Amino acid sequence: MGNYDFTLDLTDQNNTQYLINEQIKDGSRVLEFGPANGRLTKHLKENRNCRLTIVEIDAEAGESAKKFAEESFLGPDDGDIEKFHWTKISGKFDAIIFADVLEHLHCPDLVLKKCIPLLNEDGRILVSVPNIVHNSVLVEMLNDRFDYTKVGLLDNTHVHFFTYASFRKMVKDCGLFIENVQPVYSRLGNNEIDNSWDEVPSQLERFLRERTQGSIYQYVYSISLKDVTGGELPDLKPLEIEQKRNFDARLYYRKDEESKYSDEQCVISGYSDGGEIVYTRDFGEIGPVWAFQFHPLSENALILFEECKVKNADSELVLPVKSANCSQHFGRIYAFYEQDPWFEFEEIPPEYANGTLEIQFQIVAFRIEKGDEEVLKALFDSLDGDAKGLTLEDLVAGRDALSDAKKYIAHLESDLKELTEGEGSLSKQLSEAGEYIGHLEKDHAEVTEYARHLEKDLNEVKESVGALKEENARLKEELSKTLDFKIKKAFKRK
């Protein structure tokens, strides 16, 4: 049998089988791909009066599902979806089901296109696919892990991975239309991938928790031949409980002055961080209580303390903070840079020893890292007096402003470093240019001197040429006279 031979559960609405079943009408003709052992096939046949055709590559599992189908394509040949034997089916279907199937195919887009001729005009292709950008996968990758599993998001038989955007694009490219999409949620650490928020920095945790896609484990799509929504799909929402951070508060108590704080006298209560937190404890369950120490969480944190009071049937009393293991303290703001922050309050009067405790506080930041600590210290150092009027908004705004200023200073330092390096490069180039100019000036002087020598030689040559011209003219004149004399003498002889 395959990895996905699970029992059908139609009671859990956060379940792909439930969401697919809800979209199939009684009496429908259904083509089901990858039915495994036929858990949904059986239900649709016996309880919904549907007529089914199945395609299953696992012959053993398919034999179980075959009992509830009118027509079957089973085994490594006929049941291989991408060998397309099923395209020979005659007639059309009201519903075509791919429940956690497309991610196992090499060409899911081609398979969807091949389904178009088999779908009734008003029919639906119902698809569930895992979300590869679930926070569980991202936390793994951020810690340099990508280990395949037998089932789930990183099933070792998956050959295709989808995000919300990539799946929508594939459907559009096939000429089909998404009519509806429904999410199936899973919290980080509550599925087959074993990890936790402790594996990422707190700033990154806050970002990941707020991602709409981060808590969506699977998507269930209803796909049609026509655009019935005008391209508008319902807004997806993140899992609200996943957006909140969960903490354990510990209350250590002493019953009298002689007793000590110990794990034996400690109560632990879980709570979700959602702005102002009100921690309550009935002392009647553990009392009488003479004194107590309150540990709001185990990580280091920045806490805005509001008030601590005890109540009985007739009155209430505000208890001041007696001590705290904080690193810095301004008015209601307590900065704990070490693990396991705690507050200790004034002793409880006997009339309230069996009353009710109520502590109000807010967690501004937790799991503070070195960079955050430096920013917060700078913020506190910049405050005047004890800052009794400081509000949470002031603190967050100041912290963010200082963080932005720190980033800007780092940016300026980077620019200054680049300018300094640029200045050094320019100085080097200027020095090299000066040396080159010196070489040019020396060459120029040598060329000038050489030119003077050439000019002198030229003048001497000119003088020689002049003398030669004069000698040439004299010789011509003498030659002319000689020729003239000889000619005249010759004529006289005749």
Structure description:
By secondary structure, this protein is α+β, with helices and mostly antiparallel strands. It has 2 domains: 16-243, Vaccinia Virus protein VP39 (Rossmann fold, 3-Layer(aba) Sandwich), CATH 3.40.50; 246-390, Sandwich (Jelly Rolls), CATH 2.60.120. It is 36% helix and 24% strand. It has helices at residues 16-21, 39-46, 59-66, 75-78, 108-115, 135-142, 164-173, 202-210, 240-243, 370-381, 392-493; strands at 29-33, 51-56, 71-74, 93-99, 119-130, 177-185, 216-224, 246-254, 266-272, 276-282, 291-295, 301-311, 316-318, 321-324, 328-330, 333-336, 343-345, 356-366. It starts with 15 loop residues before the first helix and ends with a helix. Mean pLDDT is 87; it is low at 385-389.
Radius of gyration, in Å, reads 45 Å
Overall pLDDT confidence:
87
Structural class: alpha+beta
Order of helices and strands: HEHEHEHEHEHHEHEHEEEEEEEEEEEHH
Indicate the proportion of strand residues: 15-25%
Counting structural domains, the number is 2
User: Would you state the CATH class of the largest domain?
Assistant: Alpha Beta
